[in-house]
Amino acid sequence: MSLEDLIDAFVNLDEEKVLRIVEILLREGKDPTEILEACRRATALIGERFERGEYFLSELVFASEIFNGVMRIVLPELKREVKPTGKIVLGTVQGDIHDIGKNIFKAFAEAAGFRIIDLGVDVPPERFVEAVRTHSPDILGMSGLLTISYESMKKTVEALREAGLRDKVKIIIGGGRVDEYVKRYTGADEWADNAMLGVKKCREMLGLGG
Ligand code: B12
Fold first, then answer.
1. Whole-structure pTM over 0.85, yes or no?
2. Best substitution site from 15, 50, 52, 60 to test ligand 1's pocket, by max atoms within 8 Å of Cβ?
3. CB of 174 shorter than 6 A to ligand 1
4. Cystine design at 87: which of 26, 107, 133, 137 (Cβ 3.0–4.6 Å)?
5. CB of residue 186 inside a 6 A radius of ligand 1
6. If you average pLDDT over residues 41-53, what whole number do you get?
């Protein structure tokens, strides 16, 4: 069994086979992060089928169920760092309810010693501002997978600026299609399109090294 078999079973939405392959790969000593990355690649392929009209919303829903099943098996296998690193307020921005990637980033960041205050999904700018004021985090992490989410991210950064809090917190954005351009557009400090890189960048922003 290989990661390619896993991707193939996932794209074909064969839940039973996916979970069986994941168990086998873990037993064979495969790195949990590679398994999650393979599943992420599978969802990108599923997204393409959705765009081509070959899959519908029900298939996206089913894909997220399969991913949650994989996470239940894989996340407890992540190695844990005990040293406290910093505090992150995290949420999926207003108008967006995608949270699989956010939850993976949360698990990775917690494993790296970060304390996470998770605001959930569809979080309006004023709730992010309130949480930054209340918790004084080192970092604010915003997740968004929809194109319209970039507008919500930008509004949140502006709301923090208006509240006089922008200079008190580092901001990282994440989600499938964020890049350098989106970072500049929204006014964030960093971006990451995978959880491992996100944790590395969070550490770097706090001067802890990658
Ligand atoms: C599963 C899924 C859903 C599920 C979500 C379930 C859930 N609880 O999350 C459901 C069915 C609900 C859904 C709904 C919709 N979806 Co949808 N969905 C997907 C799909 C197939 C997979 C997303 C996913 O979970 N990927 C796996 C995770 C692990 O990857 P990830 O999110 O990128 O996360 C990684 C990194 O980005 C990073 N990361 C993520 N967050 C953060 C945060 C921080 C701070 C950091 C540092 C890092 C980080 O770490 C993660 C791990 O490495 C994508 C396809 C795709 N290409 O992504 C479409 C996709 C995102 N959806 C899409 C659409 C259009 C919709 C709907 C509008 C469909 C509709 N007609 O109703 C609705 C929108 C609902 C809403 N208001 O949000 C489009 C978006 C197009 C666009 N450009 O705007 C996509 C791209 C599909 C497509 N190709 O058309 N969807």
1. yes
2. 60
3. yes
4. 137
5. no
6. 96
Q: How confident is the model at residue 19 (pLDDT cuts 50, 70, 90)?
A: very high
Structure confidence at residue 83 as a pLDDT band (50, 70, 90):
confident
- Residue 210 is predicted with a pLDDT of 59
Asked whether residue 210 is domain-assigned, the answer is no
Burial code (b: 16+ CB inside 10 Å, e: under 16) for 79-113 equals: eeeeeebbebbbbbbbebebbbbbbbbbbbbbbbb
Under DSSP, is residue 52 helix (H, G, I), strand (E, B) or coil? coil
Q: Which range of residues forms the domain containing residue 17? A: 3-77
Which protein residue has the closest C-alpha to ligand 1 atom 3?
60
Q: What's the domain count of the chain?
A: 2
Q: What is the mean pLDDT of residues 172-198?
A: 96
54, 142, 145: residue to mutate for ligand 1 pocket, most atoms within 8 A of CB:
145
